[in-house]
Inverse folding.
């Protein structure tokens, strides 16, 4: 009975989302997958809803979210992905009770959700996060794996692991430091205190803050703008920005220049016509017609 009730709650949640998207004329139709993962029907923009249902475990949820994201990344009809949660929480993090009895060997197993969730950072397609409510611990780390973050005014971000006797384990100490700087990251990680959406925007952790009821719609609008561009070029641009996290300035600039040249090269770029079409359309003051669509 508990599973049925949880499923019904999830369906109602998805129905409300679908109705909201229809009212906003955003053209995303959402379908519910098991254990609270929802994705829209084939479209240029897909919405994945992360919402834990009833007694379903975090491990199951994370595996299904990652499976959904990877499937969308392979789907040639999808050009951009939006990841969101409930109004109360984007993703609250790990189940502390479940983790409390784990051993080092169990936690370090390749199939453990700690290791599985990191796959979100490997997607080729742009991932836009729509965050309302709490994004704490693993939830904050998942949010930081998104390429762009849109936060509702009620969003809170935090790495509270120190309060339960451990440290962030899915990139929190690394991505947070790169996003907001050493001193701010140290304060968050060492005190375990949360920051508000407004603070997150000032620090550069999120792209912008919007009213709670506009968070998903804004994220979808951003995603659809991205989806309107040439996907090979978008993927090149994403790759270059991400390279800034992994290399020195000189190495990053050299890598960027290599891909810039590649955008003009028939051999290296799968859709070289897009560069020619984009520049020609600009000169002719018309909308570009990308060849990869």
């Amino acid at each position: 009975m508990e599973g049925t009730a949880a499923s019904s709650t999830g369906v109602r949640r998805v129905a409300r989302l679908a109705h909201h998207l229809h009212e906003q004329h955003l053209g995303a139709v959402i379908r519910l997958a098991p254990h609270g993962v929802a994705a829209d029907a084939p479209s240029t923009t897909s919405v994945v809803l992360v919402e834990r249902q009833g007694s379903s475990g975090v491990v199951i949820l994370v595996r299904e979210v990652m499976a959904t994201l990877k499937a969308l990344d392979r789907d040639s009809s999808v050009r951009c992905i939006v990841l969101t949660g409930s109004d109360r929480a984007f993703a609250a993090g790990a189940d502390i009770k479940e983790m409390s009895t784990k051993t080092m060997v169990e936690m370090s197993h390749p199939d453990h959700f700690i290791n599985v969730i990191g796959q979100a950072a490997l997607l080729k397609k742009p991932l836009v996060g729509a965050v309302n409510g709490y994004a704490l611990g693993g939830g904050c780390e998942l949010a930081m794996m998104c390429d762009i973050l849109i936060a509702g005014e009620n969003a809170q971000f935090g790495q509270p692991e120190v309060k339960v006797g451990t440290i962030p384990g899915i990139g929190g100490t690394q991505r947070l430091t790169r996003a907001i700087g050493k001193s701010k990251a140290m304060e968050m990680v060492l005190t375990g205190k949360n920051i508000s959406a407004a603070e997150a925007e000032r620090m550069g952790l999120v792209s912008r803050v919007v009213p709670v009821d506009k968070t998903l719609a804004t994220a979808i609008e951003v995603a659809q703008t991205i989806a309107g561009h040439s996907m090979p070029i978008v993927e090149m641009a994403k790759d270059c920005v991400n390279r800034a996290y992994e290399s020195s300035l000189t190495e990053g600039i050299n890598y960027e220049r290599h891909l810039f040249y590649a955008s003009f090269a028939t051999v290296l770029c799968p859709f070289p016509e897009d560069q020619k079409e984009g520049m020609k359309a600009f000169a002719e003051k018309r909308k570009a017609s990308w060849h990869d669509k």
In short: The two ends are 46 Å apart (CA to CA). Residues 1-15, 27-36 have pLDDT under 50 and may be disordered.
